[in-house]
Amino acid sequence: AQKVTQAQTEISVVEKEDVTLDCVYETRDTTYYLFWYKQPPSGELVFLIRRNSFDEQNEISGRYSWNFQKSTSSFNFTITASQVVDSAVYFCALNDYKLSFGAGTTVTVRA
Amino acid sequence: DTGVSQDPRHKITKRGQNVTFRCDPISEHNRLYWYRQTLGQGPEFLTYFQNEAQLEKSRLLSDRFSAERPKGSFSTLEIQRTEQGDSAMYLCASSLGGGSSNYGYTFGSGTRLTVV
Question: How many Å separate Cα A62 from the centre of its chain?
């Protein structure tokens, strides 16, 4: 069975601080995909990134970066120099033929 | 194509009434998914279709819930005899592909159901 754990329930930071969101997953599949989604107060789920299980190269895209470590089944996400607009709930998700989501981490960025 | 559309955005109903939600996926997407999200939780999988075939239903989907996707286009999710515990956001998503797919999922804005 697929399982995604986001141990952090809430994170509060002051603007310009970095925020790292943890995600640990469980799967028996050898091929799988991992996703991060953002859900702002308006409610829609906004796709941020997906990674396949064969690609452990970490990446930076603007203020976002990802750290995928297959050996520890972790797929962490960092927002650098946070802004108030980054305030949202962030979900990690694991895919076989459907997405299984973690419980989410609420990020509050204070001005 | 403007993405996945869901209708209505909000629905308030009395306990015991039936409600129906509609989802219009991205036209070329062959897969359609329904999720339910309660406050403070991540979306939970309910069911999915590949074209018009409903391939899986979660145990979360009681007998009061039914979903259809006639002709593999739009989908409807009906809840009969609503209960207060059905209050949640119902999300629809669509994707292209099958199996362990790299293809992205596009989510709609959801239908927020409140049962009073």
Answer: 15
Distance CA B8, CA B6 (A): 6
Q: Show pLDDT as tens, one digit a residue, over chain B (116 residues).
A: 579 999 999 999 999 999 999 999 999 899 999 999 999 899 999 999 999 999 999 988 889 999 999 988 999 999 999 999 999 999 999 988 754 455 678 899 999 999 99
Q: Does A2 touch chain B (CB under 8 A)?
A: no
Q: Do A73 and A22 touch, CB atoms closer than 8 A?
A: no
Query: Is B111 near chain A, with CB under 8 Å?
Result: no
CB B36 within 8 A of CB B23: no
Select from B40, B42, B98 the Cβ nearest to the Cβ of A101: B42
Q: How far is B62 from chain A (nearest CA, A)?
A: 19
**Are residues B54 and B69 in contact, defined by beta-carbon separation less than 8 angstroms?**
yes
Contact between chains at B102 and A52 (C-beta distance less than 8 A): yes
**Chain B hits for A42, Cβ within 8 Å:** 109
∠ CA B100-A58-A66 to the nearest 5 degrees? Answer: 80
Checking DSSP bridges between strand B10-13 and strand B111-115, what pairing results, if any?
Answer: parallel
Smallest CA–CA distance, residue A110 to chain B, in Å, is: 20
Q: Which of B83, B82, B103 minimizes the C-alpha distance to B94?
A: B103
The reply to whether residue A98 touches residue B108, judged by beta carbons under 8 angstroms, is no
